[in-house]
Specification:
The chain has 291 residues and is α/β, with parallel strands linked by helices. The protein has 14 helices and 7 strands. Strand 3, helix 4 and strand 4 form a beta-alpha-beta unit. The longest helix has 24 residues.
Length: 291
């Protein structure tokens, strides 16, 4: 309905695009003229776009290749973006793979074997990921956004096992219901509390659903591996360790890499596209295939 209104006022030859990742790009333009559909595509920016380099561009079977090239040149030279061509599949490349990894981490959190601080320590700079790691990142982007993306994948993926893999865990459902969706709501996995001595960061205890003082994780293998400069060798050492860190890596990173290899032909045109998407969209130091 929106594009019907746009088409009535749009000059011929002008490009129209959508930032959505939850609705098939081709489906949105159904019923529009041939000329409109030749100039229609998806342009999925990553938030915050000021800092994240990735721009996923999603042409449909009707999109003129010259239009894709024009958008690519504009994105590169004027916006400073790294463009990746994605197929018109649910949540495209980076969110599909990135969220699969997050869901596996939430599975491990539900086991009760690791604290939120321990998991953030094991999914941050030590393994070539941003300092915000897992739970701080979810607080920044919003658990409501996480829930929408996961629900979209759970509904739209073809494979039943894959749909189950994106089912929202009870903890996230509870937090969204309470409105504890992250920084924009004042609390999520972490909460800042002001006291007489200044501000203090508190951490959610998933068992009690209460906030407690933040704990410093004590993970010897992580500290020992910090002296390894090469990120690939450091990750290999942690992954193969016969300890709690190694067990965590094999339960989360292992399935994510296998999933990536399996779905890449469906969601991307090349392995390179996946590598760039995860580096530029999620700030991974190493892409999944390089890993």
């Amino acid at each position: 309905a929106l594009l019907h209104k746009v088409e009535a006022h749009r000059p011929a030859g002008s490009i129209v695009s959508s930032n959505t990742s939850g609705i098939p790009i081709a489906a949105i333009a159904e019923g529009r003229s041939d000329e409109f559909r030749r100039h229609w595509l998806g342009t999925h920016f990553f938030n915050p776009p000021r800092y994240l380099r990735l721009l996923e561009v999603i042409p449909t079977v009707d999109t003129d290749p010259a239009i894709v090239a024009r958008i690519g040149t504009f994105a590169d030279h004027y916006l400073g973006k790294g463009m990746v061509i994605a197929k018109d599949t649910p949540n495209f490349i980076a969110n599909n793979i990135g969220l699969f990894g997050v869901m596996r981490i939430l599975d491990v959190l539900a086991s009760g074997r690791y604290t939120i601080e321990e998991i953030d320590a094991m999914t941050g700079p030590a393994v070539g990921r941003p300092k915000s790691a897992t739970f701080r990142t979810m607080d920044l982007t919003g658990l409501d956004v996480l829930a929408h993306v996961a629900s979209n994948l759970a509904e739209r993926l073809d494979d039943e096992a894959d749909r189950r893999a994106f089912a929202l865990p009870p903890l996230i459902q509870d937090m969204v219901k309470r409105g504890w969706i992250g920084e924009k709501a004042g609390q999520g996995f972490y909460r800042k509390q002001k006291g007489s001595g200044g501000s203090e960061i508190l951490t959610l205890d998933p068992d009690t659903m209460e906030y407690r003082p933040r704990q410093s994780p004590r993970l010897g293998p992580l500290e020992a591996a910090s002296s390894i400069e090469d990120p690939g060798e450091r990750l290999r050492t942690l992954f193969l360790g016969k300890d709690r860190v190694g067990e965590f890596m094999r339960a989360t990173l292992g399935p994510t890499l296998v999933y990536t290899a399996r779905v890449t032909p469906t969601i991307a045109h090349s392995v390179d596209a996946v590598e760039r998407a995860m580096r530029w969209g999620f700030s991974w130091e190493l892409g999944p295939f390089e890993t």
